[in-house]
Specification:
Helices cover 13% and strands 35% of the residues. By secondary structure, it is mainly beta. The chain has a single domain, classed as Endonuclease/exonuclease/phosphatase (Deoxyribonuclease I, Chain A). Strand 8 and strand 9 form a beta hairpin.
Length: 303
């Protein structure tokens, strides 16, 4: 296990790609009475602004980007950047992110490119970091990332239990790829975590991953936001312990597969103290094989 809250330069890839200026507030519906999750959120202009009672509005999103490919399995980073931009989110958690990984993503640094296109800061946490295919080339990496309009004050790539897809006859073992960043939103610190849980039908690895997640998150105090592809339904037994500390933000629609989705396996979850949910939605898009989840939150200054 690596030391908590490393300096920014030591976590995989960290890119400062600039900031959009904070400007337009959330739509009028989100600024008034609390929205019903999954019903009233409108995906329009958003940046963190002060709400009544000095609470801070923040829009977050999670998106499994399928290594840059759409539902058609065609790699198209322009399409995905356009979709991410349309979410108008302040903080985005990404899963299945390639960094010089293979020909499927043209050997490109997808994390860095998306950060530059969206003019957002990027923290990349590799799950796998392999020797390059060609001597002298960059390392081949695959993992999760956080995009943020706000300065990333600290970042870490935690280990959780994994069953490798890159090794023959793997056994469950600690491995990296549970990313954490701390961002400061109009003076309020927020812990943001991004994860991608095991996909197999057997829930045993996910059960261990949830236990690891709860242990890691318990070491932090204050406002917390967990973003990720959990590969399980909200009522799955292995996820039940997570809901003791976190609120599952119900977006009102399934997320997978992107065309005619039937399962909700992509999540925004928030700490019960210090964060209030105002609305959530699942935008319709085929830019990946998943649909994103976007949520409007209120951060309470007193926590």
């Amino acid at each position: 296990m690596t030391p908590r809250h490393r300096t920014l330069g030591k976590l995989g890839t960290l890119v400062v790609a600039g900031l959009l200026t904070a400007g337009t507030a959330l739509p009028a519906k989100a600024a008034g009475a609390p929205a019903t999750p999954g019903k009233d959120l409108r995906v329009g202009p958003a940046h963190a602004t002060t709400a009544p009672g000095n609470a801070i509005q923040l829009r977050v999103a999670t998106y499994n980007i399928h290594a840059g490919a759409g539902m058609d399995d065609v790699f198209d980073l322009d399409r995905q950047a356009d979709q991410l931009r349309s979410l108008k989110a302040d903080v985005i958690g990404l899963q299945e992110v390639d960094v010089h990984w293979s020909a499927r993503s043209e050997w490109r640094d997808v994390a860095r490119e998306l950060g530059e296109r969206l003019r957002m800061r990027v923290s990349f946490a590799p799950i796998y970091s392999l020797d390059p295919a060609t001597p002298g080339a960059p390392r081949r990496e695959f993992g999760v990332a956080v995009l943020s309009r706000y300065r990333i004050e600290s970042a870490e790539n935690h280990e959780i239990t994994r069953l490798s897809t890159q090794a023959p006859d793997p056994l469950p073992a600690p491995a990296p790829g549970f990313g954490e960043v701390t961002v400061r939103v109009r003076g309020l610190p927020v812990h943001v975590y991004v994860t991608h849980l095991d996909y197999r039908a057997d829930p045993s690895v996910r059960t261990a991953q949830i236990a690891d997640t709860r242990r890691i998150m318990a070491e932090d105090r204050g406002r917390k936001v967990l973003l990720g592809d959990f590969n399980a339904s909200p009522t799955a037994a292995e996820l039940a312990p997570l809901w003791r500390e976190l609120t599952d933000v119900e977006p009102g629609s399934p997320t997978y597969p992107a065309r005619d989705p039937v399962r909700r396996i992509d999540y925004v979850a928030v700490s019960k103290d210090g964060v209030r949910v105002r609305g959530a939605a699942v935008p319709e898009t085929l830019a990946s094989d998943h649909r994103p989840v976007v949520a409007d939150l209120l951060l309470r200054p007193e926590h």
